[in-house]
Design goal:
single chain; mainly alpha; about 210 residues; about 75% helix
């Protein structure tokens, strides 16, 4: 059992979930929906965005037993009828979360490069955070409820009964995709490649 991987992954997931969910709340507020603010989600307090099962227990267990990685934060509620541009506005709110992960990956990449000689352990932690943040951005774009990518299906106006059926089996479908197919490996490879590009850019800037 890999206790170190579990500790690193869960602590990073807490760190990365906060800006992800805040981004959803912030964009929804900009588009006229006060629901996130009224529910206390327009904050950078991690405790407001943690889902204990999805942000701590499940990712810890999967990391311990080497079963891939699956995790999520507490969903930010939005009211499409209050959002400017309706379902298109909801798509923008959904995209804000993965976009924040990409931005945070760039920031962590800079920290990793700066700390590489001064504090190697911190640099390794930040580097792992870059890869995990990109992985979460890719993972959340999968068009499977309740992930952010599924909101794009609604914006594309797929029949609601299809979305409802996907929602019923979304969690099970994700588990199958991650454990019985090469999807998890593909997302990991893509996140590693993206991380290497970020490191390369910052290393050139740091020279």
């Amino acid at each position: 059992m890999n206790y170190e991987a579990a500790l690193i992954n869960v602590s990073l997931l807490w760190l990365l979930t906060t800006p992800h969910e805040f981004a959803h709340a912030w964009v929804a507020t900009l588009l006229g929906d006060d629901t996130p603010r009224r529910e206390g989600r327009l904050t950078l307090n991690p405790l407001a965005h943690v889902d204990w099962l999805g942000t701590t227990i499940l990712p810890a267990l999967m990391s311990l037993f080497g079963g891939g990685f699956l995790g999520w934060g507490k969903p930010v509620n939005t009211n499409p009828s209050k959002l400017r541009w309706g379902l298109k506005g909801m798509a923008l709110v959904a995209l804000a979360g993965p976009a924040s992960n990409v931005v945070f990956a760039v920031i962590l990449g800079a920290a990793a490069v700066i700390c590489s000689t001064l504090a190697p352990a911190t640099a390794n932690y930040c580097a792992h955070g870059v890869r995990l943040s990109l992985y979460l951005a890719i993972f959340n774009m999968l068009p499977v409820p309740p992930l952010d990518g599924s909101k794009l299906l609604l914006a594309a106006k797929i029949p609601l009964f299809i979305y409802a059926e996907l929602s019923r089996f979304g969690f099970l479908l994700l588990l199958v995709l991650l454990t019985a197919t090469g999807l998890g490996y593909w997302m990991s490879s893509l996140s590693y490649d993206g991380a290497e590009r970020i490191f390369a850019v910052w290393q050139q800037s740091h020279l």
